[in-house]
Design brief:
mainly alpha; N-utilizing Substance Protein B Homolog, Chain A
Length: 145
């Protein structure tokens, strides 16, 4: 994926973290990111999509996560939770995006922002969601090996 889209994901992790922790209005968070030029090198439209669509689809995203996490979603580290929610959103609602791209991007976000080793946790959860929600894509991967 493009660097601009990767940068949009990075900014979205930070913005969703802020939303999760402080509960600020999404439009105010978006405005703050635009004003402070955190999106200078990012695909702004994708940042906006993630920032607004993850909360909009939170119930189905958290339900998908809940099947595979080892604790209530609210008890997951807030940074990992933001990353998992973005990855789950992309797996569930952005079928145009190959699941391997979603996993790789999520792993990179966890390496960038998460605690040591969190990328393995993020990968494990999102891989299980991909297996359940995108079985045809998973089967194609196995056949092409």
């Amino acid at each position: 994926m493009s660097t601009a889209r990767s940068n949009a994901r990075k900014a979205a992790v930070q913005a969703l973290y802020q939303w999760q922790m402080a509960g600020h209005n999404l439009n105010l968070i978006e405005q703050q990111f635009l004003e402070e030029e955190w999106l200078k090198e990012a695909q702004k439209s994708y940042f906006k999509e993630l920032l607004h669509s993850v909360p909009e689809h939170l119930e189905s995203i958290d339900a998908a996560l809940l099947e595979f996490v080892d604790r209530p979603v609210d008890n997951i580290d807030p940074v990992e939770k933001a990353i998992l929610r973005i990855g789950a959103y992309e797996l569930l609602y952005r079928l145009d995006m190959p699941y391997r791209v979603v996993l790789n991007e999520s792993i990179n976000l966890a390496k960038c922002f998460g605690a040591e080793g969190s990328h393995r946790y993020v990968n494990g959860i999102l891989d299980k969601i991909a297996t359940k929600k995108r079985p045809i894509e998973q089967q194609t991967k196995k056949i092409n090996r």
